[in-house]
Amino acid sequence: MTDTASAETLKTAMAEAASEVDEALDALLPKEEGDERKLFAAMRYATMGGGKKMRAFLVLEGAKQFGVGRESALCVAAAVEMLHAYSLVHDDLPAMDDDDLRRGKPTVHKAWDEATAILVGDALQTQAFATLAAPETHQDPAVRADLCLALALASGARGMVGGQMLDMMAESATAPLEEAAIVRLQQLKTGRLIEFSAEAGAILGKAPAHSRQCLLYYGREIGAAFQIADDLLDLTATPEETGKATGKDAGAGKATLLGLLGPERARAQAERLVEQAKGHLESFDERADMLRALADHVIRRRN
Question: What superkingdom does the record give (predicted)?
Answer without folding.
Answer: Bacteria
